[in-house]
Amino acid sequence: MDRKTIAAAAIMGAVAIILGAFGAHGLKKVLDETQLATFETGVRYQMYHAIFLLFVGMTTLTTEKVKKTICYLTVIGVLFFSGSIYLLATSTATGIDFKFLGPITPIGGLLMILAWLLLFVQVIRKKHNIY
Known about the structure:
By secondary structure, the protein is an all-alpha fold. It has five helices and no strands. It has one domain. Helices cover 79% and strands 0% of the residues.
């Protein structure tokens, strides 16, 4: 699972960089400042979680089963959270009303929070020295 988790992190990070550059250059002329800031929030959280998955993939503080769960929670969380933000922020530019995705954003946020809390619980329960 470490390979898959780190691969997911790498793809997620690369896509975050691509979308960040696209937002800064390609969307600058078609989105207002608020929409652009919203889009950048999605990029920022995606990158944070790419780095998080790199750590999860490399840590020995938890089991493979828990790593797998954290990976799924994080990837689905980012897809829901950042993905819905990307679509909502670009609604006026695309001409497509994505307001129906509004409830998906907090669900994605909750999944990402659960991933972090699951790691926290695993670290607290670990009885061996972490060094």
